Structure formats: structure tokens, C-alpha cells
């Protein structure tokens, strides 16, 4: 059962390190998407951020660091090191996830779902974007809805649905005109291109689902 599975700081360190690896693999892809409708730096921005996070992980002794402190530091690093709009937005997700907790050394899957819900809510508040604005919210919010509905009994199937909804959400940005971010200036010329932040957020939050699914299996 989902709620017998407990997640500790190491689980989150693994997740974040894998997000960093994924970022290196997709640095050029995300940058190319951003060249179509932005300024061509999205993959570079996230790579700078996650490399700084990796440095922090490598030089830290985690024996006294709980999940909240770890995720807060990840968020602050992304917020501080990433130049683009995406840095504060991704930073906010991790800081809000952290703020959901107190000093737990281990948490349940339901708590993780609540953390993600808060994180995604934080992006919406900070960026003031709604579904349909051609931003990362288009990928994240449909995923969040699945978590809200299923959080107390999360199964691998629910996590698959979480990922599928984010993937479809990222694809849904292709025909959109942007109402937020740099692509807004392009008007109709942004139609036909996928939003880079929607694609990166779908792919990055899939990492959490993949790790959790392995635990539930
Ligand atoms: P910049 O636009 O400053 O160059 P990035 O290229 O790193 O920053 O990130 C661009 C992405 O940020 C966009 O594809 C979009 O998903 C996301 N974004 C921009 N503004 C907002 C906003 N107000 N709310 C949510 N997401 C946003
Ligand atoms: Mg950019």
C-alpha cells in the first residue's frame, strides 16, 4: 500500500540528482524549443541551476539535514543561480514543497503529493499564469489535478496518469498563443511551437513519479 512506503532525505537527493542528469541530456533540446519562441537559453538556464545544486550536494554532509532543509536549499539555489524566468519559478516549486513540511526525516506518499500540489500552486501564484497561457502551468496543473484526486491512495497507475496528463499538457501548448513570458511578444507567431518550460517541467516532474513508482512496485 502506498502509505506504508516512507520517503527519506536520500530519496529526494536521488530524485534531484536524476533531475540534474536529465537536464544535461535535454539541455540542447530545451534550448532549441526556446530558440523557436524565446531567447534560446532555457536548457542552458536549467543546466546552470542543476549544476549548482549538484555542487551543493557533493559538498554537503547530509547526516543532519532533513527533507525540508534539503529541498529549501535546492529551491534557493535554482532561484539564485538561474538567470531566466524559469529559475524563480522552479525555485518556488521546491521552496513551497519544502514549506509543506516541518522537520520530518521520513514522509508518506500522500505528503509528497501534497508537497507537489503546494509547489505547483506556488508557481501559479508567483507567475500569475493559468492553463491556456502557454507556460509550464499547462503541463503542471493537469498533473496536480490527478494528485489532488488520488493523493490518499496513490498507485503506480495514478502516477502513470500524473505523467500522462503533464505530457498531454505540454503538447497542448503547441497551438496556443502565449499570454505570459517572452513568447507573448510573438503573438500568433508562437502558434505551432511547444512551450519549453511546459516540456521541461513535464520531463522533470516525471522523474519524481518514476522514483515513486519504483518504490510502490
Ligand atoms: P526566459 O524566458 O527568461 O528566457 P527561460 O527560457 O529559462 O526564461 O524559461 C522560459 C519558460 O518559463 C517558458 O517556456 C514558460 O514555460 C516559463 N514561464 C515564463 N513566464 C512564466 C509565468 N509567468 N508563469 C509560468 N511560467 C512561465
Ligand atoms: Mg529563455
UniProtKB/TrEMBL annotation:
GO terms for biological process: glycerol catabolic process. PROSITE patterns: DHAL. GO terms for cellular component: cytosol. Residues 10-210 form the DhaL domain. Pathway: Polyol metabolism; glycerol degradation. One of its GO terms (molecular function) is phosphoenolpyruvate-glycerone phosphotransferase activity. It is an enzyme of class 2 (transferase). Homodimer. The dihydroxyacetone kinase complex is composed of a homodimer of DhaM, a homodimer of DhaK and the subunit DhaL. This is phosphoenolpyruvate--glycerone phosphotransferase. It comes from Tetragenococcus halophilus (Pediococcus halophilus). The lineage of its organism: Bacteria, Bacillati, Bacillota, Bacilli, Lactobacillales.
Amino acid at each position: 500500500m502506498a502509505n506504508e512506503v516512507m520517503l527519506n532525505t536520500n530519496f529526494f537527493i536521488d530524485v534531484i540528482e536524476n533531475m540534474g542528469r536529465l537536464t544535461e541530456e535535454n539541455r540542447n533540446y530545451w534550448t532549441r524549443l526556446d530558440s523557436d519562441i524565446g531567447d534560446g537559453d532555457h536548457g542552458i538556464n536549467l543546466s546552470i541551476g542543476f549544476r549548482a545544486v549538484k555542487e551543493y550536494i557533493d559538498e554537503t554532509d547530509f547526516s543532519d539535514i532533513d527533507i525540508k532543509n534539503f529541498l529549501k536549499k535546492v529551491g534557493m539555489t535554482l532561484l539564485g543561480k538561474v538567470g531566466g524566468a524559469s529559475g524563480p519559478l522552479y525555485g518556488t516549486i521546491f521552496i513551497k514543497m519544502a514549506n509543506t513540511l516541518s522537520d520530518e526525516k521520513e514522509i508518506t506518499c500522500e505528503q509528497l503529493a501534497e508537497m507537489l500540489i503546494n509547489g505547483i500552486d506556488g508557481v501559479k501564484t508567483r507567475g500569475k499564469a493559468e492553463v491556456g497561457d502557454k507556460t509550464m502551468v499547462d503541463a503542471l496543473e493537469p498533473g496536480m489535478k490527478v494528485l489532488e484526486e488520488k493523493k490518499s491512495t496513490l498507485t503506480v497507475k495514478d502516477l502513470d496518469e500524473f505523467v500522462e496528463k503533464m505530457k498531454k499538457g505540454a503538447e497542448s501548448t503547441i497551438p496556443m498563443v502565449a499570454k505570459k513570458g517572452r513568447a507573448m511578444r510573438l503573438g500568433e507567431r508562437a502558434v505551432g511551437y511547444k512551450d519549453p518550460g511546459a516540456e521541461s517541467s513535464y520531463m522533470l516532474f516525471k522523474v519524481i513519479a518514476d522514483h515513486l513508482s519504483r518504490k510502490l512496485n
